[in-house]
Specification:
The complex is a heterodimer of chains A (about 350) and B (about 375). Chain A is an alpha+beta fold and about 350 residues long. Chain A folds into three domains: about 45 residues, no CATH class; about 120 residues, 60s Ribosomal Protein L30, Chain: A; about 170 residues, Phosphoribosyl-aminoimidazole Synthetase, Chain A, domain 2 (Alpha-Beta Complex), CATH 3.90.650.10. Helices cover about 30% and strands about 25% of the residues of chain A. In chain A, helix 3 runs parallel beside helix 6. Chain B is α/β, with parallel strands linked by helices and about 375 residues long. Chain B has two domains: about 130 residues, Rossmann fold, CATH 3.40.50.11750; about 160 residues, HypD, alpha/beta domain 2 (Rossmann fold, 3-Layer(aba) Sandwich), CATH 3.40.50. In chain B, about 40% of the residues lie in helices and about 20% in strands. Chain B contains 15 helices and eleven strands. Classes of the chains: A alpha+beta (about 350), B alpha/beta (about 375). At the A-B interface, helix 1, helix 8 and strand 14 of A face helix 1, helix 2, helix 5 and helix 15 of B.
Chain lengths: ~350, ~375
């Protein structure tokens, strides 16, 4: 999506012209969602912090005393998962870890969260209690506190049990600039573990697909893993957690924002056999399946081996691996292209999904 | 993973690649019939492992792509009714009805859903029968799209609904058959195809006896082929070998799944519920005896009859060259609209919609080399 392309030129009053109504695919993490964000939200709220296209905003705050300026990371996310409880997690662990992870991807130490609840009339109090207890445990595990909140109740039928919004702030305690703009040719891509588990776990419950053993979501707080890299002085250039849209969408976003090419190798990307099997049955590509406890790190080549050792020593990063690297843009007509060497050794483009991944006919 | 890893193995792929290069002395144009094969070829880059003598063209075997516009419009009309629960496989939902006619808003089944229609993705037509059973006050319609591969399950859905007296279930049928399409391609004056990779899954159901007279009549080798990269390379090797030796036989590369007679039980249920009829193919036109419609006995399960849309017809856009792509005469990137004003977000024609569609496969995996 090139903003200078006449096809995507901004126009008033409604800049999103392809569809007159919102489709589910506008929230699917693919191209339609990115067009919506670029054309409507970024246009409306235009400011330099938003322009960085990062998981959160890193704000420079000035103190009047001798301690000088400090940096604060700020982010928000909403959670609308169905079902509320699934193998490996629930809406509560997503709501805490999702926001914690967005802060971690800014290189921040997550500290304080807010929690907004939109509850549907008729929701069993016991369900709400279960969610709140789980949030408390997840917050403890991630080392954050929920310090403010809000509650709204909507008419029965106008919500899906519980919607949760969390916002969070964290301290940036290092001097690095961590964002797509700092990615450089030669950087190495590290992936923190196997991909696709969260999306398949949800899909399996939602669609009643049964496997020999339940596939559990990878939902986890990633801050301690990221801070281990930063505390060791690793030259981290950019971090991105893999959520909706999967590894592929994250890489395309960064490649386009950084205006650099990315090359990855399919054989280096770990996918568990049960996840692979489910993807084969449904016609899904694991590269596009959602994760909730995985990230990619762009690391200066000279630090890559050391970073990998640090990741692998952490319980959440035992499966970490190097999956590719960054190079100058090869084709000037494109802002940055992700390519992958396939298992049989040929090269193909990795693009963003248009909307949601739809199961194929045969 | 068993049955996956060994067929995506780089060494095995390179071995067949070398064997093809050593065998091909002249230039040959082969067509892979099935959209699933096209998807694999482009996704794994199988064609990059082929010598310049071998050209692959992509056949009409994507069920989404060959479903005519008027059926999409019928689906939209039916799905928009308040009493209807419209069930479909996922990738039919984004196929646009108004193709290249200047409409500002593409109208597809996803838009129907956004405007309040009850459109649901199902994984099996039998799920739709279950939905009908649980919602006796609603009309449940399943969009029965596909080749011989999906026909048995769709037939079974109607058969079960009939047996169990579920009267609020019906099928919007858009079934097409592979052999008549192959004959249409072979008998066309601008045909370039010299050999076929037949669709492994279709042959799993139907067997391959019906291809034997085609191979003989048109003197064209036909190799029943699977869907993994090594399958496809082996299929190409067998096909090129036949061409170089001047033979034109039906061979079975996909023996781990396909038997000559096919799956008899599946064929029986197809014959019980469906009959062979002429069908329109998007971009190709009507081909005699090329599709399936419901038998008279099951006429009441025909959604076109039930909702009175049978007479609806639509002319197709002249801008989209889908027909030429589907017949293997043009490659997707030879279309002026490709990647410019036809993209997966805003498709002009169906091959840009489904992941099995040749245009979408090229767009997603191939824009780089297409520009060269």
């Amino acid at each position: 999506m090139n903003a200078n392309d006449p096809q995507f030129a901004l126009s008033c009053p409604i800049p999103v012209s392809d569809y007159p109504t919102v489709l589910l695919a506008h929230g699917g993490g693919g191209k339609l969602m990115h067009q919506l964000i670029e054309k409507m939200f970024v246009t409306a709220f235009a400011n330099p912090l938003l322009e960085s296209r990062h998981d959160g905003a890193v704000i420079n705050l000035l103190r009047k005393d001798e301690r000088g300026p400090f940096r604060l990371a700020f982010t928000t996310d909403s959670y609308v998962v169905h079902p509320l409880f699934f193998p490996g997690g629930d809406i509560a662990t997503l709501a805490i870890n999702g926001t914690v992870n967005d802060l971690a991807m800014c290189g921040a130490r997550p500290m304080y969260l807010s929690a907004g609840f939109i509850l549907e009339e008729g929701l069993p109090m016991e369900t709400l209690w279960r969610v709140v207890q789980s949030m408390r445990q997840a917050a403890d595990a991630a080392g954050v506190q929920v310090v403010t909140g809000d509650t709204k109740v909507v008419d029965r039928g106008k919500g899906d049990g519980i919607f949760i919004n969390t916002a969070g702030v964290g301290m940036v305690e290092h001097e690095l600039g961590i964002s797509p703009a700092n990615v450089q040719p030669g950087d190495v891509l590290l992936l923190s573990g196997d991909i696709g588990r969260h999306g398949i776990a949800i899909m399996a419950v939602r669609e009643g697909l049964e496997f020999e053993s339940a596939i559990e979501s990878d939902c986890a707080p990633l801050a301690s893993l990221v801070l281990a890299l930063l505390d060791a002085g690793i030259a981290v250039r950019c971090l991105r957690d893999l959520t909706r849209g999967g590894l592929a969408s994250a890489l395309v976003e960064i490649s386009e924002a950084a205006r650099l090419d990315i090359q990855i190798e399919e054989t280096t990307i770990p996918v568990r056999e049960d996840v692979q099997g489910a993807c084969e049955i449904l016609g899904f590509d694991p590269l596009y399946v959602a994760n909730e406890g995985r990230f990619v790190a762009f690391i200066s080549a000279s630090d890559a081996d050391r970073a990998l050792t640090i990741l692998r020593a952490h319980p959440l990063g035992t499966g970490a691996c190097a999956i590719g690297n960054v190079s100058m843009v090869n084709d000037r007509s494109h802002p940055g292209l992700v390519t992958m060497k396939s298992k049989i050794g040929a090269i193909r483009i990795i693009d963003m999904m248009s909307g949601e991944q739809l199961p194929r006919i045969c | 993973m068993k049955f996956i890893d060994e067929y995506r193995d780089r060494q095995a792929a390179e071995q067949f690649s070398r064997a093809i290069a050593a065998t091909a002395k002249r230039s040959w144009t082969l067509m892979e019939v099935c959209g699933g094969q096209t998807h694999s070829i482009v996704k794994f880059g199988v064609d990059e492992l082929l010598p310049k003598e071998v050209t692959l063209v992509h056949g009409p075997g994507c069920p989404v792509c060959v479903t005519p516009v008027e059926l999409i419009e019928k689906a939209i009309e039916i799905a928009s009714r308040p009493e209807v629960i419209f069930c479909s496989f996922g990738d039919m939902l984004r196929v646009p009805a108004h193709v290249g006619d200047g409409h500002e808003t593409p109208m597809d089944l996803l838009s129907v859903k956004a405007q309040g229609g009850d459109v649901r993705i199902v994984y099996s037509p039998l799920d739709a029968v279950q939905i009908a059973r649980k919602n006796p006050a609603r009309q449940v319609v399943f969009f029965a799209v596909g080749f011989e591969t999906t026909a048995p399950a769709n037939a079974m859905a109607v058969f079960q609904a009939y047996q169990q007296g579920i009267s609020n279930f019906s099928l919007l049928v858009s079934h097409v058959l592979v052999p008549p399409a192959m004959e249409a391609i072979l008998s066309s004056p601008d045909n370039r195809v010299q050999g076929f990779l037949a669709a492994g899954h279709v042959c799993t159901v139907m067997g391959y006896t019906e291809y034997e007279p085609i191979a003989e009549k048109y003197h064209v080798p036909i190799v029943v082929t699977g869907f993994e990269p090594v399958d496809i390379l082996q299929g190409i090797f067998l096909c090129v070998k036949q061409l170089e030796e001047g033979r034109a036989a039906v061979e079975n590369q996909y023996a781990r799944s396909v038997r000559r007679a096919g799956n008899r039980a599946a064929q029986q249920i197809i014959q019980e519920v469906f009959r062979v009829i002429p069908r329109k193919w998007r971009g190709v036109g009507e081909i005699p005896r090329s599709g399936l419609g419901l038998q008279e006995k099951y006429r009441e399960y025909d959604a076109e009859v039930r909702f009175g849309v049978a007479e609806h017809t639509t002319e197709e856009s002249s801008e989209c060259i889908a027909g030429l792509v589907l017949r293997g005469i043009r490659k997707p990137h030879e279309c002026l609209a490709f990647g410019a004003h036809c993209t997966p977000e805003r498709p002009l024609g169906a091959p840009m919609v489904s992941s099995e569609g040749a245009c979408a496969a090229y767009y997603r995996y191939r824009r780089l080399s297409c520009r060269d």
